[in-house]
Amino acid sequence: MRMIYGDSIVSTVAKLCITANYKLRTDVKQSLKIAGRREKGLAKYALKTILENIDIAAKEHIPICQDTGMAVVFLEIGQDLQVKGNLIEAVQEGVRIGYKNGYLRSSVIDEPLGERRNTGDNTPAIIHTNITAGDKLKIAILPKGFGSENASALQMFKPTDSMKKIENFIIETVRKYGPNACPPLIIGVGIGGTFEKCAELAKKSLTRQIGKLNKDLNSRKLEKRLLKKINSLGIGPAGLGGKTTALAVNIETYPTHIAGLPIAINISCWALRQAQAVI
Ligand code: SF4
């Protein structure tokens, strides 16, 4: 059994929070560049400005966006790994330190229906854990801004509902909320499982690299079809019109109950930030 100390988790998480907020994912940046080549007019200008913003942030070590998000953390914990100390507390402490040292905005409030006081250190983070084989700890941090989080949706379909109805739900969600979610968007879709599982799948699907093909052929076809239809909505970069409303549609599926068909959509803005490490 391999052992790691809470301190190394704290420092790794702190660094990841800063890196994720200063440096955009390479695949997202590349995809924005490609989109810029096929756009013209205002759409081209919007993408050029976004790309300049990304470069300035990386060069000057400042956040890509003022909304530095609620920290969403995916932990893959090797079953042959022992953590000395409290794993969850170590992650929360890392977020606390990372947001403070990186001068990242604290956006988390305590009681959603109460006084909504800012907790002052961007904690608590949202932590998803998964037990895997091996003796390593994989940590992925996604700072999630709420301009796009608010554009998300979930619906419990009937197993008899048609594919057309499901596609319409996804497309109409983007049509309705997409313009306020800072497009070009990355659309995460979770299909199956339970109410909460499909939401988690939708979020997790955002971690898949843009352009990386879905292993499942049917999902891959659906991703392609949805992306085409979403891009024909004409919302465009920054909502100014154009061909690029979304950069990708990523679908994740999971077996579900005979009586149900849960579908969740989790939307990310162009600022799809993510950093990960293995310790
Ligand atoms: S939706 Fe994204 S780009 Fe827009 S303000 Fe929020 S974090 Fe920033």
From TrEMBL:
Record protein name field: Fumarate hydratase
Domain Fe-S hydro-lyase tartrate dehydratase alpha-type catalytic, first and last residues per copy: 11-277
Record family assignment: Belongs to the class-I fumarase family.
EC identifiers of the protein: 4.2.1.2
Pfam families: Fumerase
Keyword Phosphoprotein attached: no
InterPro entries hit by this protein: Class-I_Fumarase/Tartrate_DH (IPR051208), Fe-S_hydro-lyase_TtdA-typ_cat (IPR004646)
Alphabetized UniProt keyword annotations: 4Fe-4S, Iron, Iron-sulfur, Lyase, Metal-binding
GO molecular function: 4 iron, 4 sulfur cluster binding; fumarate hydratase activity; metal ion binding
Top EC group: lyase
